[in-house]
Amino acid sequence: MTGPDPGLERWRLVLGEAAEECLGGLGDRDAARDRALDWLYGRDSEYARRGIRRGGGRGRDAERDADLSPSQVTPVDWLDDVHRLFPKETIERLERDAVERYGIHEVVTDPAVLGRIEPNPTLLRAVLRTKHLMNPDVLAMARRIVAAVVKELTERLATEVRRSFHGTRSRRPSPWRSARDFDFHRTIRANLGHYRPDERRLYIERPYFLSRTRRRMERWQLILLVDQSGSMAGSVIHSAVTAACLWGLPGLKTHLVAFDTSVVDLTDDVTDPVELLMGVQLGGGTDIARAVGYAADLVDNPRRAIVAVISDFYEGGDEHRLVRTVRGMVEQGTRVLALAALDEDAEPEYDRELAQRLADVGAHVGAMTPGQLVSFVADVMG
């Protein structure tokens, strides 16, 4: 007797219980996966709109539906099942949907869940959005997630910073020997005379190395203005990490400013991004014009300044004032970046009409990953 067809089982998992009559049942493991998926996605209002009844079945299905009711399965139980049944990439997607799509805040406010959950950027965003719901004990556990994710992001970006700001390799030979500056091609060409055919080996008598150009570190300013509305949580995280990585670089003065309808200068806290993020208050309105005006007052030398406005550009303040201020900074020589996102996906939702108006007065509009922003700053500084 053959088991269920794997291809049909996958389609059955994708299409849900409504497809069981056509595609057949599931094996034990896939049935467990189906229960875990149904616990989460079964609450989707789309089922009701399409007239699909959840629960109320007979036999095995009725038993399964009863077991899946919210009163029977807790977020802790569900999380245990998810980690047992699915690969890591799927787990992260399910956790993200639980928090961001269905608002199951117990995933990040229940101590039992926080104690066993694997830190990742999705959970960090959830912590920032829900930390006001946490009691002190839970908040202390949530800090573990913040610290772990920030550490990983910082280490990753620090590599980009070193690469971008160390200088480019030139073709001039260098007396200084460094493995990363090893000139492979010239070394091979210069030592071909030492090749031993009988041994099939090339002996290196003299290795060659490339020199590096030294960047001119004239004093520059980087002012990061980050919108702290709820939809910008990812950009807030990466702005804090970026500011921390750039802080203290020779020739660069970095500012970090958060805004909603008010403006908060976080520059003094950038050396501790964990504490900085735990203190950020997401949500509220948006007054981009006010924040950009604050940044304009911070600029010491317009021709040595980069202002990065990180927002979805749904302006609650004065759009005309915003455009006028950006135009003034650009005319004075300041590089203005209007970034609809600063995160690892760089796939933003934003007000394209206002962004176009900013582009028309000279702002560079787009979305960047933190590494791309670091490279841009390094290139501008030359």
Automatic annotation (TrEMBL):
Pfam families: VWA_CoxE. The lineage of its organism: Bacteria, Bacillati, Actinomycetota, Actinomycetes, Streptosporangiales. PANTHER family: OUTER MEMBRANE LOLAB LIPOPROTEIN INSERTION APPARATUS (PTHR30634), OUTER-MEMBRANE LIPOPROTEIN LOLB (PTHR30634:SF16). Residues 52-71 are annotated as: Disordered. Residues 219-378 form the VWFA domain. It comes from the Bacteria. Signal peptide: none annotated. This is Mg-chelatase subunit ChlD. Residues 58-67 have a biased composition (Basic and acidic residues). It comes from Thermomonospora cellulosilytica. InterPro entries: LolB, Uncharacterised_CoxE, VWF_A, vWFA_dom_sf.
